[in-house]
Structure formats: C-alpha cells, structure tokens
Amino acid sequence: MTRILERWRLALAAAAGAATTLLPGCGSPPVPAQPPAATAATPPAVVPNPANVPAEVVQSGATAVTGVRASGAATARAYRADAASHVYGLNKDRIWKGRLPPLLYAIGTLQVDLDARGQVHGMHWMRKPSHAPEVVAEIERTVRAAAPYPAPARMGKVVWTDTWLWHKSGQFQLDTLTEGQD
C-alpha cells in the first residue's frame, strides 16, 4: 500500500512539473510599467502617418468637418474595436442590451474596405444570411451610413471584418463588442 501511494505521489509531482514546464505563459501576464504622467511641457505623441492621412486627423484625432477621430490601431484586428465602437455610437437605440438570446434571426460576417480617410470603398460578405435579404440590405445601409469611420492613420487603409449578430426585433450586436449569448 505504501508503494502504491509513493508511486501516485511521484506521478503527481511529475505531472505538476511537466505542466509548469509546458505552460509557462499560463500565469498572469506581467503588469506593464506605467509611463510617467505627461506634463505641460511634454508634447502629445504623434501617430506615424504612412498613408498621407490629413494632418488635422492625425494630430488632433478629429477633423473639423466630420468630427471623426483617427484610429491608432496598427493591425486590422486592433481596428475592429474602433470601427465597432463607431457603429455602436451611431446606433445606440438599435444595439441589443445584455446577453443575446440563444436563437438569433440572422448572423452574417462582412468585410468592409476602408480608405485612409475612413470612407467605405467596398463590401464583401464572407457569410451572408441569405435567408434574410432584408437584414443584408439593412446591414449594408448601416455600414454606409456610418461613414466616415475612424481614419486608420497607422495602416493607411484597412479591411474591417466583423460578424453581425441580428435579433428578429432589428436590434443587433457586433461580435467584437458582444455581451455574449444565453
């Protein structure tokens, strides 16, 4: 009996050692050092401008004409949150509050080509809810009406891809900002 217990103890110790060796990144990530607080003498950081986005967009984060801010995202994936937040801001009364119900009326994944100024240059459905053509038309209308999007200052242009989670009431959530589903 003692031998069996000893074997189990050794097996558990070996498994624990293997787990810590194989999964070193599973712990909490290190907390990044906080940058020193900006002072009045410190100028604001300038976002690189490879796409010739208007200087007023890059420097101030907004244009006087449109009021659209510049996105500091460096990748299309990072840009998703800026674009989704922009759509939510313009459609507050159409956003489903809370967790979505288990059965949705339509789900569609749309790619939107945006230029350096945040204007829509094209759309491509990756997953089109073909059973609901009225939803397809409404999503496309909503995307066009939300232009201009935050200018992708660091990328020049971007393809924004997001999944639209559509309830039969006409309210929706975007996968990027979803509150989940029951």
Automatic annotation (TrEMBL):
| Domain of life (superkingdom) | Bacteria
What are the entry keywords?
Signal
> Span of the secretion signal?
1-33
Protein's name in the database: Energy transducer TonB
Give the species this sequence originates from.
Caenimonas terrae
